[in-house]
Amino acid sequence: MRPAESSSTTPASPSRFDVVVVGGGVIGLSVAWRAAARGLSVAVVDPAPGSGASHAAAGMLAPVSEVTYTEEPLLGLGLTSLARWPAFAAELARESGQELDLRREGTLDVAFGADDLAALGELGAFMEKLGLPVERLTGRECRRLEPMLAPSVRGGLLAPDDAWVDPRRVTRALRRALAGRGVPVLRERAAEILVAGDTVTGVRLASSPGTTADVRPAFSGALDTAADARPSPDTAADVRPAPGPDTAARVVNAGCVVLAAGAWAGGLAGVPEGVLPPVRPVKGQIMRLRSAVPVLSRCVRGTVHGSPVYLVPRGDGELVVGATQEELGFDTRITAGGLWELLRDARELVPGVTELEVADVVAGLRPGTPDNLPLIGPTGLPGLHLATGHHRSGVLLAPLTADLVVDGLTGAADPGHPCSPSRFEDRA
């Protein structure tokens, strides 16, 4: 049931939360939702929840079609999380009243020239060696599945179990679900992780140079407009402190802090240097096109001029085209060159895309790590847990990440998974 938009009763929030999640993307919101479901008191800190990499993501849940030769551990994580997505989506849709547009028609990877076809054949052999479900198709069979494909397509691989979802709907649904559970989303930037002795005690907000006041938002399933609350346009669970003398010193006290700030997770003050996650921003530009009816029935991807490109259809006729990968630091400018490359390559796969309306262009920053595996779980600093470094797999790995993090928060973590932050702390 969709949470109510207003409430006549407003329970007091705790002066100290069990968990504060820094970061309101799909990872942070999923962790907060699962933690609240386990009975923990939770708050989320993010100045613009759902507006970062999650807003720019295409939402492919495609561990099979995105497999690479040296990243079998990431493949295993992806397959495990993909298996959790149907139940995760059904529960979230039921609790939030929002449809997520989860689709499971598979991914079609196509080739044009003889060299591309040979490379795709080798990849198919690798997939088969790993026991992955994949079907080899001729060019004619590819066009039978997707009639809008270019006539020059020579063949392809179909990963029938791959899926995709609309990340913007997911983050919106998560925020509504958090509202229904009375979880505040504080629309402020975290400035510092606070530590007393050798243990995390909370988070200082950017607007607060001091460290003495608690954040005490009034909230329920939908927040009323009390002195320190401002409902956001799409969910009443967001909290923005009103101007006043006590906003000069705002601290969120917590037993544990989960750092899920994506590409920004590596620069938060208060975290010892050896514990800071080694994440870097990887820029990606995407386009959203629109047509009256969907032009594709499944995800289509290929390599054009040496660059990968994918097209992800939505049920409402939207078509997401992405994505560039650029090592340019914290640069989120949308460039003519990046958009031209996307359109050029997409047109090679599906010539009709140039007739579609441009609905949106956006650039986001994926959090990359040195070994391309995320950082999930407790760190060497007691009370600090990580959920970052997911690079291209943030949406895919959201259900698994949330479960692993909450298991760690409740003392039930599996120490054997390959994403432990300790692998970099030991090196430091």
Structural class: alpha/beta
Total helical segments: 9
Radius of gyration: 22 Å
CATH topology of the largest domain: FAD/NAD(P)-binding domain
CATH superfamily of the largest domain: FAD/NAD(P)-binding domain
Overall CATH architecture of the largest domain: 3-Layer(bba) Sandwich
| CATH class group of the largest domain | Alpha Beta
Strand content: 15-25%
The H-and-E topology, N to C, reads as EHEHEHEHEHEEHEEEEEEEEEHEEEHH
The count of domains is 2
The major β-sheet equals: 9 strands, mixed
Shape: globular
Amino- and carboxy-terminal Cα gap: 48 Å
What's the total number of strands?
19
Query: Averaging pLDDT over every residue, what do you get?
Result: 87
Contiguous runs where pLDDT drops below 50 for at least 5 residues: 1-12, 208-236, 241-249
- Fraction in helix: 25-40%
Q: Topology, please?
A:
Layout: E1 17-22, H1 26-37, E2 42-45, H2 53-56, E3 60-61, H3 72-96, E4 107-111, H4 114-129, E5 135-138, H5 139-145, E6 155-159, E7 163-164, H6 167-180, E8 185-186, E9 190-196, E10 199-205, E11 238-239, E12 251-259, E13 280-290, E14 299-304, E15 307-313, E16 318-322, H7 336-349, E17 357-368, E18 375-378, E19 384-388, H8 398-409, H9 422-425
Parallel strand pairs: 1-2, 1-12, 2-8, 4-14, 8-11, 12-19
Antiparallel strand pairs: 3-7, 4-6, 5-6, 9-10, 10-12, 13-16, 13-17, 14-15, 15-16, 18-19
